[in-house]
Amino acid sequence: TAQPGGRGCLGGSRPHARAVSPPCTPVPVGVTLLQVTPLASPSHCLHHLLAPELKPTVKGTAIAVGLNSVKIYCQNEAVYQYHVTFSPEVECRSTRFAMLKEHQAVTGDVTAFDGSILYLPKLLPQPVSLKAQRRSDSEEITITIQITKVLEPSSDLCVPFYNVVFRRVMRILDMKPIGRNFFEPDQATVLQRYRLQIWPGYSVSIRKKDGGLFLLVDTIHKVIHSDSILNVMHTIYRQSLNSFQEECFKQLVGSVVITRYNNRTYRINDIDWNKTPRDSFTLFSGEEITFVDYYSKAYGITIRELDQPLLVHRPREKQTSDGKLDLVLLVPELTFMTGVREMRRDSRMVKDLMKEMLQSPKQHYTCLTSLLRRIKDKPEASQELMRWGLSLDPDIHRTQGRILPAERINLRHSSFIPVKDLMWNKEVTREASISAIAMNYWLLVYPKRLQDVAKTLVATMESTCGPIGMRVSRPTVVELKDDRIETYAKTIQSVLSSEDKVQLLLCIISSSREDLYRAIKKLCCVQSPVPSQVINVQSLSGQLGKLRTVVQKVLLQMNCKLGGELWGVDIPLKQLMVIGMDIYHSRSKGMRSVIGFVASMNHILTRWYSRVVFQMPHQEIADSLQLCLASLFQFLLPQMNHCLPKKIVIYRDGVSDSQLDTVLKYEIPQMQKCFKTFENYQPSMVVVVVQKQISTNFYTMEEEQFVSPPPGTVIDHTVTSLDWQDFFLVAHHSRQGCSIPTRYICVLNTANLSFEHLQRLTFKLCHLYWNWPGTIRVPAPCKYAHKLAFLSGHILHHEPSTQLCDKLFFL
Amino acid sequence: FSEQNWDCIYPCLINFQEEQFTGIAEFTPPLYKQRYQFIKDLVGKYKPKKVADLGCADCTLLWMLKSCSCIEVLAGLDICASVMKEKMHRLSPLPADYLKPSERSLTVTLHHGSVAQKDPCMLGFDLVTCIELIEHLEEPELKKFPEVVFGFMAPSIVVISTPNSEFNSLLPGVMLFRHPDHKFEWNQVQFQSWALETARHYGYSVEFTGVGHPPTGMENVGFCTQIGVFLRKYPQTSESTQSEKPTQAVYKTVFKAVYPSLKDEKYLQNAVVSEVIFTAQIIKQSLLNHLMSEHDPTERKSKFRPSMSCFSEGLGKLVVGKSMEPFVNGNVVYIPLTTIFSFPKVKNLCGTFEKLCRLIAGKVMLSSDGSTVMFSTEHEN
């Protein structure tokens, strides 16, 4: 069978399996009803599940998993697609709707109509020609309904209006729509201390997946302020009279609000201090009306304070139909803030909020099944679905996943297979790292009053560095007279400019101050490039045992920053390079996005090259990518003895589904163009998009209880995409709540890397993030790229010096 | 894909807002809006608590009326369930209604049924509106209609509107009736004699008015929509209501929404606890600021001055004449409940001091005798 065009072959079973089933094969009636077993769709799924037996090479143990997807059964034989024409032409869509509605006797009362395409669950005798009278001018209109397609009821063409139907089901259950999701504010948890409420809710969508039609359902929460924005402003006013406007801007701009009069949410982009509710705006009809009058007339709402400023929301371009960017002005009195801004967060609040929102797999499962039960128990709700012949499975979908084989962790002298929760904290602090850089000449900077802490720190470093194979000489001590930023900055600057052999700079600061941190990092990453470590003195307080643990971690981190290597895993692929990419988007207006780019430089993937590109808004990522690759190879050529990698695997974070095509059509060709600048260099490539924010979730059974799946659990069928080759992997171990898998979408594979090998490589990479002695959610290069982009975009606002490009200075 | 692109909502044959298609150019605001505004003004005048709209169609009038703060019960009735269902969810409480529950209670119910049938759910209303309804009724239904509305439901006020056929000649494109579903359209004399006879029979007085003024010089044509406002002459005696009313329900409830309200103890308690904590925090802050400024006189002028000026007056007034005053002991602030109760917002919510104590029990940290709110000074970050 042929490969789907434009996409590389993955080997493995998926592409073949998919090609077996042409897109619109009519499915015999009743087939869907038989698919109650987990081995759902006859064509691809079965193939997958049988694959382990057919191919003994596939590694990993089978594991029973429950998905947060609910099978949708289609009872109808087909859905019929018609084209509706009005002659003479009727421009107004609502008139078209009304005219077609009058012929319900012909169409039946179950219709989905967008103004020209009509879907019905029944076949109309052809041809259909109807008459209607246009009321505005008494013109007689001929409506012709012509059949265009007979669709499987599970066709993805039906999915958009199935979703409309399902949203109505949710409303029948008395759920409140906010944006795309549904909430139950009457079930709110009120956190009086913070004047916050937590509303439980669901995100629901019907999607066509490899395993057929599914309802994807997840539990969500909305955190919302009990006070109107006006009240929040009053509180700010009381607390900071002098910097009131500035403070309001800081606390309010960027947050998402809901209003008292509709179900919509708006992001606040600005505050207009010159406007009040007494100002006017122009209605759609052209009429000028004040905000006060408008809310009174349209919603019966009386605005009490007439001297409040107005909040400004700028709709994104695509949200306005005519391309004109109209501002939306909102009245603070009528709006409520959702979410918690970072600046207002304190650890206690986060803890209290998380306590309310975290759900164990069991609780999560209970929530999902209770929604299914409510739909089943409310006749109107299930009837609503049945109008289109749809019914929901009474339980979540259960199927089989695989646990990838455990990975061996290699240190300098020893290697081991980690225990079940995939943590190796003990091993890395007791045994020698793969390579350790001796700290012969390093600076210790601290304010005078922290003298004692500094002494203890050095002593602890000396006593703990031995087991991990590090050598720490006495530091050059720089004592500061106070802890003002200028003192730090000036001293560090003068020391670094007079000394050029400094390997590392260690700073102790007396509290977590972002401005001080920024000043130090700017000096050490941009102006006088040197690896640097900043320690907050609070983390050094406490008992000796705790201090030792902290110092061990700091030592490991410093070793990475100096260019040392902590641990590795077996990498069977030869001449391989792994690249990780992530993007940091600044929240503040007009700031550029930052692309973090990290590439491996040796075969065991323990040495990393890094590069940052600041990108103007609307600039193509592809340009920056080319730049990164070019500078990478320039750096590598002399080092690698002109022997460039033959296989390049790129993990790309920060790409949404809608951007996948852009990656494939623009970015990848740009990268390939870059290779051509080297003579006879044509590496094979694998490009994998990494998605963390996904709604797919799964758990596994353990003694009749749902629990989080063990790290290494992979699902590559049933809930996977019809259009892309993707799989879900849970690499990390989560102690609380449900662990959310990461979705990997392979958009290009010219390396002939089998799907199984790609999964295993991905899992291996999740072991290699040296800031965490365990597995993490994403491949290490992605996490490194993320750290790098964040440091550059959020702290430095500048590209770090290229002199640091071969060290993990950004950890 | 977008939801708006798909119109798979319940279709229905009857469109009650016919003027949207016909005479829209003739009237600003459109006539249907004028009719609704007429009802809204009437509600503003008579302040009914229970309002029913017969032939409520897509519930636009009910939606407009839900913001009238006097109304506690709203009901809609229509013969066509699907037209009601089409937009009925806009009668549901909005998410933000749960954040600031209103003081009044409000229940909105939609019934599917005929105005020619009696159902006890329609009893006890203050105002019943029949906007552009009667002209859709067949002869037998029209005959039963007065007995159901005036005899059985017997509200204090009934409003009936219907097209004035004399005006039709001024509407472009109207041949016989304004809408194909109309069974008749009356002229002014026909409507008024029917209304007067009905009013006389059931003990109501009736006044005639309308919306949609005729063009100057043609005043004798009358309003485009003629309206009769019926007022019951005598207060209804409770015995007559009880004895002769059937109890069998014939209507089918298609929708019911109960709005969150402070009448509901759950929401009242939330509101009271929130207000108590808010008030206590203000007092605490002001106390702490006061203490600070006493310890360090230089600080008073710079850092804490704004907040002091904000609170000292209010607090000063409050504690005057009270036997107990808020105070700080160690890192606990003690605020007597009586002080908190003296804040108008708290007082208004609870009414009585006893109710305050009952509502916050177990929700706010109190001293052992329950008379004082205790707050740790360390809670604030």
From TrEMBL, chain A:
PAZ domain: residues covered: 228-339
Gene Ontology molecular function terms on file: hydrolase activity; piRNA binding
Domain Piwi, first and last residues per copy: 504-797
Keywords: Cytoplasm, Developmental protein, Differentiation, Hydrolase, Meiosis, Methylation, RNA-binding, RNA-mediated gene silencing, Translation regulation
Cited Pfam families: ArgoL1, PAZ, Piwi, Piwi_N
InterPro entries per the UniProt record, alphabetical: ArgoL1, PAZ_dom, PAZ_dom_sf, Piwi, RNaseH-like_sf, RNaseH_sf
GO CC terms in record: cytoplasm
Disordered: region residues: 1-20
Family, per entry: Belongs to the argonaute family. Piwi subfamily.
Identification of the protein by name: Piwi-like protein 2
UniProtKB/TrEMBL annotation, chain B:
Keyword Magnesium tagged: yes
Recorded coiled-coil stretches: none
Biological-process GO terms, alphabetical: piRNA processing; RNA methylation; siRNA processing
Cofactors demanded by this protein: Mg(2+)
InterPro entries per the UniProt record, alphabetical: Hen1, SAM-dependent_MTases_sf
EC number: 2.1.1.386
Superkingdom to which the source organism belongs: Eukaryota
Protein name: Small RNA 2'-O-methyltransferase
A GO cellular component entry from the record: nucleus
